[in-house]
Amino acid sequence: MIKTAVISLTVLVTLTGCAHTPESPIVDTPVEMAVAADEVSSAPHFDHAMRRTMEAYDSTGMVAAVQVDGQLVYLDAAGLAEEGTNRPVTQDMLFPIASISKAFTTTALAILVDRGEVEWDAPIRTYIPEFAMWDPWVSENFTVRDALTHRSGLPLGAGDLLIWPDGNAEPDDVIAALQHLRPSSGFRSEYAYDNLLYIVAGEIVARVSGQSWTEFVTQEILLPVGMDQCAADKPLISAGAPVVSGHERAAGAEDGVPTDPRIDFSTTWAAAGGLWCPAGEMMEWGQFWLDGGVTADGVRLISEGQARELWQGVTPQSPRGGLRAAGSTNLAMYALGWSIHDFEGTLAVGHGGGAPGVVSNFLILPEYDAVIFSATNDYRGAASAFNYHVASALVGAPENDFIADWGAAFAAAEARGVEQISDTLVAPETAQPHALSLADYVGTYRDPWYGDVVISQTEDGSLYIDMGRSEVLDGALTHYDGNRFAAFWPDSSLKADAFVDFTVEDGEVTLVTMQAISSLTDFSYDFHDLRLEPVAGRE
Asked: How far, in Å, CA of 125 to CA of 140, rounded?
């Protein structure tokens, strides 16, 4: 996934940051490191840091890599690739890097910009004529750059239920749905992370190049950069390659369980978060950027101007809370597929990623010629804690213990979320009876961007909800209070149980809305964006 949010809750956090000016080089002369390059492998105690991180987050498994001055100074793996087996995480194991993939999409577009086939500030309708947003003026003026910088005016994660956790939407479905998603802020006025517009961006790559996004990224980026083992989509992973299993756990559970295969990212996700890579090859990706868009073989894939463009901040962000509390950062911006911010007085460029049961983090410190990547096969923020702990050591700020501080914050947030879920398992003492007979809630309800949701009755007379696009989000409805019911999905590890509220007027249901019960629920379960109205002629 590919997504961003508060680390202690949904852990899909992109790195925040400040921008280089357009005139400044991508990589300045490296400053004198706090730790000399030939000592760097031992001084920050990377191995100890990774094991501390795994303990703080109770991780099933983890992989990490650090490169300084073009030298791989650390690469290791620990833990299990899959709970309940003896299969270990290995250094060459492929992890889904989720939203870190967004920078590959912007790089693909930069290649097309260099070729004169795409313009950053051209309206999307130049390439996708049927593209439309809620507002007609916005539809006409929405540019390629707008699609990449999370300033659309849509709310956080808007429309992700089309493809999350196992939504069946195709790119054409995503494009058709956008015009029905209600904005929550003015166009270009606020930062709100999204995935759907990166799917649109991937469609631009496909329509302009005549190749699929996966084909283009593989041939034009992965292979030239030297990322031979990476796959632009899970079905493209080489036979026999070691692949990690993601893990989720029900609220309060001791151990993670392998995620349901049905929630693996579909190909529709590819441009927003589809890549799978081993940790070592992420160092190749980092070095490519430290070299300003030039491969290890000396081939320039994108011009110097476009390399600068992708790291130029566009949309202001709120600095990440944990970093700001530590006094490590003050400014943050989202560029083209990258988050950039100041970190202990130096530039930091990177991104985080969240896939089903896997969280990753990628960080470049250009002035220190350093690249850091880590990933864990649990849906929790261990990767960010490790990366910033190591970054602190590299820049000479060891007083910040992000592993301890963020690990404790995560544990506290987890405890609050567990309590929220526990509180809903029993209806409140003041609960009111439902206004209608259960049969009167039955019917098909439709949202114009999502599609149909069906409420039915089982043989024992209880209500059942079928979310239409999803197989894993189908389950019994339990009465909670008045016209509010609760959907407790069969897979409790999703931590995505939801309230289902029926608006009743004149003895009939006129609207159904939903909202997540717990703060642990990932923002891509955007139930709150649904406005389900009864379909005419429903039973």
From this structure: 7
* Residue 457, C-beta contacts closer than 8 angstroms, at least 6 positions apart: 438, 439, 442, 463, 464
Say how many CA atoms lie within 13 Å of 252 toward its Cβ: 9
Instruction: Confirm if 526 and 155 have CB atoms less than 8 A apart.
Output: yes
Among 468, 449, 528, 469, residue whose Cα is nearest residue 496:
528
Cα separation values, 158 from 128, 518, 524, 531, Å: 20, 18, 7, 13
First to last CA, the chain: 37
Domain boundaries, the chain: 37-416, 438-534
Handedness of CA 106, 109, 113, 119 (dihedral sign): negative
Q: In sequence order, which ranges of 188-301 are alpha helices (DSSP H)?
A: 196-209, 213-217, 223-225, 270-273, 279-290
Q: Are 270 and 202 in contact (CB under 8 A)?
A: yes
CA distances from 210 to 112, 193, 205, 466, 520 (A): 12, 28, 8, 37, 41
pLDDT tens column, 14-26:
332 232 222 223 3
Query: Which positions ≥6 away from 139 have C-beta within 8 Å?
Result: 125, 131, 132, 133, 179
| Alpha-carbon span 169 to 167, nearest angstrom | 6
Report the C-alpha gap between 502 and 510 in whole angstroms: 8
Cβ pair 359, 382 in contact under 8 A? yes
Above 50 in pLDDT, residue 6?
A: no
Which range of 41-45, 351-355, 394-398 scores highest in mean pLDDT? It is: 351-355
Whether residue 11 has pLDDT greater than 60: no
Q: pLDDT tens digits, residue range 69-82?
A: 999 999 999 999 99
Q: How far is CA 67 from CA 280, 386, 407, 488, in A?
A: 9, 14, 25, 45
Strands (E), 69-132: 71-79, 95-96
Q: What are phi and psi of 225, to 5 degrees?
A: -75, -20
Report how far residue 287's alpha carbon sits from residue 284's, in angstroms, rounded to the nearest whole number.
5
Contact 328, 319 (CB under 8 A): no
For tokens 């109770």, the residue is 58
> Which architecture characterizes domain 438-534 according to CATH?
Beta Barrel (2.40)
Could you tell me which CATH class the domain 37-416 is placed in? alpha beta
Per-residue pLDDT tens over the stretch 230-273: 999 999 999 999 999 999 998 888 889 999 999 999 999 999 99
pTM of the complete model beyond 0.85: yes
Q: What is the pLDDT of residues 444-479, one digit of tens each?
A: 999 999 999 999 999 999 999 999 999 999 999 999
Helix ranges restricted to H, 63-119: 102-114
Q: What share of the chain is helix, strand, coil (3-state, %, to 5)?
A: 30, 20, 45
Q: pLDDT, tens digit, for every residue of 187-225? A: 999 999 999 999 999 999 999 999 999 999 999 999 999
Q: Which residue's entry shows tokens 């790559």? A: 205
pLDDT in tens, 48-69: 999 999 999 999 999 999 999 9
